[in-house]
Design goal:
By secondary structure, the chain is mainly alpha-helical. The protein has three helices and no strands.
Length: about 120
């Protein structure tokens, strides 16, 4: 759908429909980049790596809420354009799966941190 001259409310609804997911994804990608950079320079098995991975997981979980906001904005925009309501809100499987993977990797790294500390205590 293309509007030649959208009104300001239509522009705001379009922004509300597209921005939330993009912002969450960009934030998660930045956190992953920071995590990888720190792991390369300070070692992967640190408490900081675990914290950053958990923070990334929480950010990814907010993507589910972002999807809800975006879908409501799309519905409102569709109703303003006379297209009727198209309530197709699905399950946020991608966001939840990504968060789950980050939590799992964080727990694996945490176990590596504990094993590393145990090894240092032995030697």
């Amino acid at each position: 759908m293309h509007l030649a001259h959208p009104t300001w409310p239509q522009r705001w609804l379009w922004l509300a429909a597209t921005a939330p997911g993009t912002l969450v994804l960009m934030t998660a990608l930045i956190l992953i980049n920071i995590t990888v950079h720190r792991a390369r320079h300070r070692g992967p098995f640190t408490a900081g790596t675990v914290t950053l991975l958990r923070l990334t997981a929480v950010v990814l979980l907010t993507g589910a809420a972002a999807d809800l906001v975006a879908e409501n904005a799309r519905i409102a925009l569709s109703e303003r354009l006379g297209g009727g309501s198209t309530n197709l809100l699905g399950y946020p499987v991608g966001w939840v799966f990504g968060a789950f993977i980050c939590f799992v990797v964080a727990e694996m790294i945490k176990r590596g941190v504990l094993l590393s500390r145990e090894l240092e205590a032995v030697i």
